[in-house]
Amino acid sequence: KYTINRLLNKIVRTAQRTQQREEEGKPLQSQECKEHKETLKLFCQEDGSPICVMCVISPKHKQHTFLSLQEAVSMFQDKLEIAETCLEVKMNYLNEHQSKQEEYISGIQKKEQNLEQHIKS
Q1: 3-class DSSP state of 31
Q2: Cα-flanking dihedrals φ and ψ of residue 48, to 5°?
């Protein structure tokens, strides 16, 4: 069974939104904070969201740590690359295991046919 990695899911959604904005010609830096109407320039690590300079001094983000948007993008790209590598390794293992199981099932089916023919004769 697969479990959803919520942080990875949030990272992917953020990356997809960023990519969509860039494709629309509207980079993330040109987005405004809904609360302060300031340009989003920083990333709050605790909340996992882009924020403006005014948000830094608000009580909502008191004692939080911040990165520039570029640093956050870089960090998330690194995390995504690591996650992608891990998923590829797992996928290769699962594909190999699936092939072995299919061979095993095929062998059982052949034995079944041989046994069935032996019983009929």
Answers
A1: coil
A2: 65, 40
66-107 per-position pLDDT tens digit: 999 989 989 999 999 999 999 999 999 999 999 999 999 999
112 to 12, 18, 24, 34, 73: CA distances (angstroms) = 48, 56, 60, 67, 57
Q: Which of 103, 97, 104, 80 lies closest to 14, judged by CA?
A: 80
Cα angle 20, 10, 81 (rounded to 5 degrees) comes to 80
Structure tokens at 21: 């904005």
Residue 73 structure tokens: 């993008």
